[in-house]
Write a structure and sequence with these properties.
Number of strands: 20
Largest sheet: 15 strands, mixed
Shape: globular
Radius of gyration: 22 Å
Number of helices: 8
Strand content: 35-45%
Length: about 350
């Protein structure tokens, strides 16, 4: 059965923009940026690809957000909007005009920050990867850093689980330097030795990264024998955990401008004669078969349409699966300009929700 989008409805997202909401799945913000910053005459090139959990299974995920902030940004915080200004401050000021002279490329610094959703099971766990790479050139004043961390967040216990909590390290062989190794045999009988650096639960499987940075995705049936009791319980137990509801809110301010709940005229979309339903149907690239680990067949995406008609502040508020959500976000982010909402004859920012059902 091939999935196709059969219903796309655009509604004003008034309640979610300011009022506290509960979420049975997860709410994930997707933020991609490219910046040029300058400090003491040196140029810093910053690329960011962030999937940031705002809520999951009605639970308190503050420890998860704090972990990601520390590993990806080197900061102690949980609020994403507070993290960015503090993080960027270390790289100086944004470049807003052409350089008067050609910058010294030996003083450049290249920074990549990334957080990625790897797995989720409702009421049980959410797994993520945080990456930070700062690569200064010889004359840059920035400090060279490179780190990658996997985490599986136990929703019921409110606890981040690291590799030692996921893999029973005693079941792995050990090198003379104390490194834990895992043997992988391919279909041709060739054996690869993996020096294990990180591990977390995935979408019904397990992610393992090696010390050289390679990431492997193993079926649970293969890794079950190495898993800890805690990992097996999270992966194999039926149903969802009982957690006390925790509300979340979506921002009602975008880049210092109010996001309107009610407008005189709502934002509308029409591109080359195509309405939003036809546009999404034509551009979405989905798997032939839905995953058995998908939460459902409905994705709801929250967006802010700014006063220029651009799509901003994209977040999945009702998920299907990490891969499906990511594809929907990709297409929504690259949509042509909308006709923005108006209040009193003036263009304004407004928040919309796009429910997209697959059958």
């Amino acid at each position: 059965m091939k999935w196709i989008s059969t219903a796309v409805v655009v509604l004003l997202l008034s309640s979610l923009s300011v009022a506290a909401q509960t979420v049975t799945g997860y709410c994930m913000k997707y933020d991609q940026r490219h910046w040029l910053y300058q400090k003491d005459g040196q140029v810093n090139v910053i690329d960011m690809d962030i999937e940031w959990p705002m809520a999951a299974s009605n639970a308190d995920i503050t420890p998860l957000q704090t972990f990601l902030a520390h590993e990806a940004f080197g900061l102690e915080s949980k609020n994403y909007n507070d993290i960015l200004p503090s993080f960027l401050q270390r790289f100086g000021e944004p470049v807003t005009k052409k350089f008067e002279t050609i910058p010294d490329d030996s003083a450049f610094c290249y920074v990549n920050v990334k957080t990625t959703l790897l797995g989720y099971q409702p009421g049980r766990y959410i797994s993520m990867c945080a990456e930070y790479d700062c690569a200064p050139q010889p004359r840059s004043i920035q400090k060279k850093e490179n780190r990658t961390a996997f985490v599986t967040y136990d929703i019921a216990q409110g606890k981040p689980l690291l590799m030692k909590d996921i893999i029973n390290l005693k079941k792995l062989d050990q090198t003379q330097r104390g490194e834990r190794i895992f043997y992988m045999v391919d279909d041709y009988g060739m054996t690869t030795i993996i020096v294990v650096r990180n591990a977390c639960l995935g979408q019904g499987d397990m992610y393992v990264s090696s010390i050289d940075g390679t990431c492997y995705n193993f079926e649970w049936s293969l890794m079950q024998q190495y898993a800890t009791t805690a990992a097996r319980k999270l992966m194999e137990k039926k149903g969802t955990a009982n957690v006390s509801p925790v509300n979340y809110t979506l921002d009602n301010i975008f880049e210092g401008k109010p996001v309107y709940e009610k407008t005189d005229q709502p934002a509308t979309f029409l591109s080359n004669g195509m309405n939003i339903r036809n546009y999404l149907t034509q551009h979405l690239r989905l798997p032939e078969e839905p995953s058995e680990h998908s939460i459902g067949n409905l994705v709801k995406v929250s967006v802010v349409i700014d006063e220029n008609g651009q799509v901003n502040d994209v977040a999945v508020v009702t998920p299907c699966s990490p891969s499906i959500d990511r594809e929907v976000v990709r297409v929504v982010k690259t949509m042509p300009l909308w006709t923005p909402a108006t209040v009193g004859g003036q263009n304004v920012c407004s928040r919309l929700i796009l429910p997209i059902e697959f059958k």
